[in-house]
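step: validate -> pass
step: tokenize input -> pass
step: predict -> running
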Amino acid sequence: MQPDGHHLAEFNLGVLKYDWDDPRVKDFVDGLDLVNGIAQRSAGFVWMMSGDEMEAEQLAPEGALGGNPRLASTLSVWEDAASLEHFVWNTVHKRFYDRKAEWYDAVDSLRLVMWWVPEGHRPTTAEAMARFRHLETHGDSAFAFGWAHLKEAELWKTKQCGEAA
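step: predict -> pass
step: emit ->
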């Protein structure tokens, strides 16, 4: 349940099968601005780390994300689970999600972590990776969780596997 005075932070990451300039990931790369623009215009959107800042974080060899040149990630904050869930499963984002196996390695592994942040807080990638690693090691908790931990989230149950609702 969402604590009073808090928003929902989400961090997702994956490693592309091919380099960013490879034609096999062109549709993904070309669609990033569209998907991120829709996120930023969505009801309940609060904040997203900019593409340039995220790229710098992804490529920093000593950074929290490890410097993998094929890493693709986003870090954002939403007013509530319903807003994030609507964006993920009911916008063009869903079409990109359904194609993840074309573009990403290890699509069945953990790729998303969420946690509650005080309103106005902008998480860092170091904070996000700490939450991600905690979820990976300990499973869902109040500190770090996935969709199944959010009792109010329902769409992910029917839409994560490409099923139409």
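step: describe -> The beta strands are 6-15, 45-48, 71-78, 112-118.
step: cleanup -> pass
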